[in-house]
Amino acid sequence: MPKMKTHKGAAKRFKKTASGKIKRSKAFANHILEKKSAKRKRNFRKAGLISEGDYKRIAKLLP
């Protein structure tokens, strides 16, 4: 069998951590920021983890 290719779109959006979890960036942080609180905008800058339900599907894209 040939090697698995990395899905480049997923590679730009997700990173694997040392423990094998998958990091992601938060949504809703790009525009219409005036009505969002400073605390909420600050939390958008922190990385999140993907949910359990999505893990198998996204892990397949990042061999």
Low-confidence stretches: none
Percentage of residues in strands: 5-15%
Distance between the termini: 14 Å
Estimate the global geometry from the Cα principal axes: elongated
| Helical coverage, percent range | 25-40%
Q: How many strand segments?
A: 3
Mean pLDDT: 96
Could you give the order of strands across the largest sheet?
A: 1-2-3
Instruction: Please tally the helical runs, counting DSSP H or I stretches of 4 or more residues.
Output: 3
Query: Could you state the order of secondary-structure elements as H and E?
Result: HEEHEH
> How would a textbook summarize the main sheet?
3 strands, antiparallel
Class computed from helices, strands and strand pairing = alpha+beta
What Rg do the Cα atoms give? Answer: 15 Å
Protein traits:
single chain, 63 residues, alpha+beta, 3-stranded antiparallel β-sheet, 3 helices, elongated
Strand-helix topology:
Blueprint: H1 8-13, E1 14-16, E2 22-24, H2 38-44, E3 48-49, H3 52-61
Antiparallel strand pairs: 1-2, 2-3
Describe this entry's structure for a reader.
The protein has 63 residues and is of the alpha+beta class. The protein is built from three helices and three strands, in the order H-E-E-H-E-H. A three-stranded antiparallel sheet has the order 1-2-3. The radius of gyration is 15 Å and the shape is elongated. The mean pLDDT is 96.
Brief description of this entry?
The chain has 63 residues and is of the alpha+beta class. The protein is built from three helices and three strands, in the order H-E-E-H-E-H. Strand 1 and strand 2 form a beta hairpin.
